[in-house]
Amino acid sequence: MCLWLNFEKNCVATLGICTNKTSSILTTEAVNRPFLYPVSKTCFRSRTSARVKMKRSKGGGDEEAPRHNGSAGRRKADQQQSDGDEGGSDIGPADLQDDDNDQGLRREIRSKYRDLISSVQQNREDMLSPSNNKLTEVLEEANKLFKDVRQAREAALDAQLLVVATDLGKEKASQLFSEGTAFDPTAFAEHLLSFMGLNRLEDDEDEQQNTANGYLPQDAWHRLARRAECCFRTAPSFHYMMGSFYAEPPPPKQRIERQRKAPSKEAKRIMPTQLKKMEESQQEATEKEVERILGYLKSYYQDDPTSPISYYEFVIDPSSFSRTVENIFHTSFLIRDGLARMYLDEEKLPCIGEMILLCPSQELIDAFDIKDSIIRPPNTQND
Amino acid sequence: MTQRKRPSSTQSSSQRRHTGNLVAQDEDDDATFTQPSTSQVQRGLEKLTPAQVDQKTAEVVQYFLVKDQKKMPVRRADLVKHVVKDYRNIYPEILKRAARTFDQVFGLKLVEIDPKNKMYILVNNLETPDKASPVRSPSNPKMGLLLAILSVIFMKGGVVRENLIWNTLRKLRVDPGEKHEEFGDVRKMVTDEFVRQRYLEYVRIPHTEPIEHEFRWGQRADAEVSKAKILEFMGELHEQDPKTWTQQYRQAHSLPNSSQASTSSSSQR
């Protein structure tokens, strides 16, 4: 398995890549064989010799055909160059014996490989940039690591790294290979935003948000869609001009009318009863309450006729202010009607007591010879 | 001439249908729908009145027009099962007449986008205007997003990894991970809706961990979208001559119909 990469800033890249197939063959072969060391020795002595082996078995340099139209001559020259560079990473059998050291070393190698793989994957955009040689550096790093590889597991990681790196290499090569101007999606996005009418903010209020400067107008995407109409030969969507014909309208209308009529009648019926109730309830409620309070007062007096009832004790509801106010209100009716009396006791605290009811008895009427009432009775209260 | 190729079973079954036997159609029939030969079509036409054939043609046209509202391609199997039904023995004739109707009445072209699976779409046959249409019909913002995606794919050689598209969209203030106020679930729209409409192809790249996909132009895009016009738009945006992108320019102008792949309904069915 072999990889030649020769990226320099302004030169056209030459790229010879072995396909994924090759690397996967290597991995599967290495993993499936029970005796790894001899196999790895043969396969991984140097990567170039592995290529030679592959070449022999596949019968041709098809695997090494570059993905892009590189000139064959230059490729061969590079081959020899890399051969010279990479040759002679001989592995001796002595290393096998020191198992513990091996384990630690292997772990280290594996971890370094994984770091390299993740760095390639994470910094993909960075590595793609034609202004640096980071990809070459990664591969040089991998070459150094590879010198210590003995077993299939590390070799598999090496293969994985190469798959990732060659993929990146292919993309990088495609960038450099295009004869015309390269296409930069970032610049494209910027231009597109301007086209859509991005209002860039004048001053950098938010220094943190360097990316989100400005806001897009509401119709930004519509603008682009309109421009798209020129590039697309889309068939206009078919719609009936007057909408679809529904056979159903009449029944719903009837239902609506019926529904409207019904509530109005009920509403009228309800109205008068409600009004009556309201008038009655107001009067009744107050009277009932007053009677109720009179009842309380009487019962208190029956229990204990001698001791006076403190007014405050009588009216105050410790749990509710509004009830207290109501109690005061209703008690005032009692006093107004002469059914109770308020007086100050020795300690000048208000007390409430019963009144002797002045019901107009027949004797009183005869005694005073009352023929007519002086105070004209008011009109009926229920108006 | 074509009868030689066909196994005897299908021949007899098509004859059965030919006699007007209203057997319930099972799925197998549609899956193995074989094109009736010209002689069979002739015979079929003789047995029917012109009015019947016209009626059936009109039904096919209407089916296509309604299906095209959502830009979903029409499968031949569905068409035969739901519309053509008993007239399947003259199917080629019906389709030919329908294509003619589309062309003459609506200015549309019936295009077969998938010869293997027999799928059809409708494409506008009229010349695209150079500038935006003066008619202020409501535009679909999704087309704007689609244009951006197709442009990137085309300028990048025809295949891009999905991450490039997502990153570009993010720069355009459309985050596939979040709900966009105009597009809603962007990821679903791009990987599901556009793919089903055949504007895009979303293919899994083998041997990738975690799983990655790549985007290509879909078959509908190949038929509907003009690469030359896209390049023109690029030129406007970047204030460059479209010819500076030599590879893309060559690709856009290499086909005789520089706008789309030249498939027409009459050649393939």
From TrEMBL, chain A:
The entry's keywords: Chromosome, Coiled coil, DNA damage, DNA recombination, DNA repair, Nucleus, Telomere
GO CC entries: chromosome, telomeric region; nucleus; Smc5-Smc6 complex
Keyword Nucleus applies: yes
Top-rank taxon: Eukaryota
Location of region: Disordered: 48-104, 249-270
Gene Ontology biological process: DNA recombination; DNA repair
Domain Non-structural maintenance of chromosome element 4 C-terminal: 308-352
Biased segments, Basic residues type: 48-58
Compositional bias of kind Basic and acidic residues: 254-269
Main location: nucleus
Ranges in coiled-coil conformation: 132-159
InterPro entries linked to this entry: Nse4/EID (IPR027786), Nse4_C (IPR014854), Nse4_Nse3-bd (IPR029225)
Domain (Nse4/EID protein Nse3/MAGE-binding): residue spans on this chain: 158-208
Subcellular location: Chromosome, Telomere; Nucleus
Role: Component of the SMC5-SMC6 complex, that promotes sister chromatid alignment after DNA damage and facilitates double-stranded DNA breaks (DSBs) repair via homologous recombination between sister chromatids.
Similarity remark: Belongs to the NSE4 family.
Subunit structure: Component of the SMC5-SMC6 complex.
Descriptive protein name: Non-structural maintenance of chromosomes element 4
Organism: Astatotilapia calliptera (Eastern happy)
Automatic annotation (TrEMBL), chain B:
UniProt feature, compositional bias: Polar residues: 32-42
Domain of life of the source: Eukaryota
Transmembrane segments: none
Alphabetized InterPro entries for the sequence: MAGE (IPR037445), MAGE_WH1 (IPR041898), MAGE_WH2 (IPR041899), MHD_dom (IPR002190)
Bias type Low complexity, positions: 254-269
Gene3D superfamilies linked to this entry: MAGE homology domain, winged helix WH1 motif, MAGE homology domain, winged helix WH2 motif
GO CC entries: nucleus
Signal peptide: none
Location of the MAGE domain: 53-252
Region of interest (Disordered), ranges: 1-44, 242-269
PANTHER family: MELANOMA-ASSOCIATED ANTIGEN MAGE ANTIGEN, NSE3 HOMOLOG, SMC5-SMC6 COMPLEX COMPONENT
Record protein name field: MAGE domain-containing protein
Species this protein is from: Astatotilapia calliptera (Eastern happy)
Phylogenetic classification of the source organism: Eukaryota, Metazoa, Chordata, Craniata, Vertebrata
